[in-house]
Amino acid sequence: MTAQPTLPLDWPTTARLDPPETPLAPLRYIRTVVRNPVETWPRAVYRDRVYQSTFLGRATLFVMDPGLVRTVLVDRAESFEKSEVLRRSLSPALGDAILTADGARWRWQRRAAAPIFRNERILGFLPAMIAAAERTREALKGLPPGTEADLAQVMMRTTFDIIAATMLSSHGRIDVARVERGITDYLESTSWIFALTLLRAPAWMPFPGRRRSEAARTYLRDELLRLVAEGRAGGVEGRDDLLSLLVAARDPESGRAMDDRDVADNLLTFVTAGHETTALALAWTLYLLALHPAIEARVVAEVEAVTGGGPLAPHHVEALGFTRQAIQEAMRLYPPAPVLVRAALEEVDVGGHRIGPGTPVTVPIYAIHRHALLWDEPDRFDPDRFAPEAAKARDRYAYLPFGAGPRICIGMSFALMEAVAILAVLIRDLRFALRPGFVPTLKQRITLRPAEGMPMRVAPRAG
Ligand code: HEM
Questions:
Q1: How confident is the model at residue 170, as a pLDDT?
Q2: Terminus-to-terminus CA distance in the chain, angstroms?
Q3: Residue 415 CA to ligand 1 centre (angstroms)
Q4: What's the rounded Cα separation, in Å, for the pair 406 and 78?
Q5: Which of the 8 DSSP states describes residue 386?
Q6: Fewest C-beta atoms under 10 Å: which of 60, 62, 253, 295?
Q7: Taking Cα atoms as reference points, which of 333, 300, 339, 363 lies closest to residue 440?
């Protein structure tokens, strides 16, 4: 395996992982898991339909064939649960809330949150999304000429503003910078937890950064608990924000309501799952557009044409088809959630492989999105792949940035609308140029981040 970053030979080829030809030896495997789990996937994962890997006698099945992805995520979804790795990584911070729970407990939490993601509700969030994007645009315009900004960080702040304004009505009382830092510190520990889970080490096992991660977790959980208590004290009657929906929900089986801890865990889940992912989608989109000026020009021209040169209004967003395609294609090359892992609850046949209870099944989204059998020139950035006819002709399960089946991202429409609105507001008035020679390194910490951020020079677009 060669080290990242991959130097582009036929510039502007974009940054990518360079998978090892053959499976890594155990020690190297564990070291790579700690550094960057996605780099352990061998080339076969990008070429074959299924791939079986074994570590310390324990097998994992990688599933790339779209038909088999469908078996795992949709047709036999009831036969799988979230993996041990996910639970060990995320439950200490997120509890047993919507992202980490399974079965009946997951179902009623999903049902409780669903009304806020109905289409008409999300449309109502568009003014807040556009306003946050405009604030970011003005802040960037105010930078001295030639200043470099970390656009990954700037996008995090923008999407955080939006998630707080739309999901947590009381966002004025949140220390945004501290919460963001807490989330990053916490996620930093997850690759260690992944490695320790593979080694079957007990949950109390120390590892570098553990204390910092625990401090972050305690801060985040206390902070959200405080918000819930304040929200309840202010009265939830008559409000229909996420907090009041969660407080009002009843488990249909037990009749039980959520206690403050359950509500806080869900709110933190929405804050975490709902802002970093969209920010990454945007950071990677800006990166790709900076490398492909002709495509960038098409996006700018579309925004100009749809808005008629005026400010972006909520009703414009739906009409920005090519802008959306550029984001979809960026999420193909850099899926913010690059992998899903499930564990079988019972014996299941997956394409002739008999999976026993407890066996993990990996859906390597990043590799499926660049798979030799599924995409022409997989490493090329080409938003026309998502033109309506081309997208219709493709297998639904070859493209999974939001997952599929009952656990599909509840925020999918919210995220797409938000990303289109932010990109349109920024790109029409600003030009983003990469630091010369900069090639981002891809790093997985649950999400797929540019390890050094996304340093870009921002300048007003002339004329
Ligand atoms: C580009 C942005 C986003 C991406 C790529 C993304 C990706 C995903 C993926 C792949 C899953 C499925 C996980 C699995 O099956 O194991 C998921 C679940 C989830 N997402 Fe997103 N997401 C995004 C934005 C959002 C937003 C904006 C929100 C909330 C406002 C959100 C909230 C959630 C929640 C709560 C779940 C768990 C759903 C469940 O298990 O029922 N996500 N997301």
A1: 58
A2: 47
A3: 9
A4: 9
A5: G
A6: 253
A7: 333
Topology (CATH) of 26-460: Cytochrome p450 (1.10.630)
Cα–Cα separations (whole angstroms), residue 159 to 276, 280, 311: 7, 10, 20
Residue 257: count of CB within 10 angstroms of its CB: 14
pLDDT of residue 7: 43
Q: Is 129 in the pocket of ligand 1 (CB under 6 A)?
A: no
**Do residues 279 and 156 make contact, with C-beta atoms less than 8 angstroms apart?**
yes
Task: Kindly give the residue spans of alpha helices, DSSP state H, lying in 82-200.
Answer: 84-94, 103-113, 119-141, 151-167, 176-188, 190-198
Q: Which of the listed residues 277, 366, 369, 400 should we mutate to test ligand 1's pocket, taking the one with most ligand atoms within 8 A of CB?
A: 277
Q: What local confidence, expressed as pLDDT, does residue 119 receive?
A: 92
Q: What is the separation of C-alpha 133 from the centre of its chain, rounded to a whole number of angstroms?
A: 19
3-state secondary structure of 289: helix
Q: Please indicate whether residue 403, judged by its CB atom, sits closer than 6 Å to ligand 1.
A: yes
Residue 183 has phi, psi (to 5 degrees) of -65, -45
Indicate whether residue 405 lines ligand 1 (CB < 6 A): no
Which CA distances in Å does 216 have to 153, 222, 325, 447? 18, 10, 36, 18
State the distance from the centre of ligand 1 to the C-alpha of 310, rounded, in angstroms: 33
Supply the DSSP string of 402-444, one letter for each residue.
T--GGGS-TTHHHHHHHHHHHHHHHHHHEEEEEPTT--PPEEE
Distances, alpha carbon 4 to alpha carbons 15, 289, 332, 349, 371, in Å: 9, 21, 20, 37, 20
For ligand 1, whether the C-beta of 116 sits within 6 Å is: no
pLDDT means over runs of 10, the chain (463 residues) = 47 79 89 90 95 85 98 97 86 89 91 89 93 97 91 95 82 77 85 81 84 90 88 71 83 84 92 93 97 96 96 97 98 97 96 93 97 94 96 96 98 97 97 91 92 94 74
Nearest residue CA, atom 1 of ligand 1?
278
Encoded tokens for 52:
């079986």
State CA 6 to chain mean position distance: 23
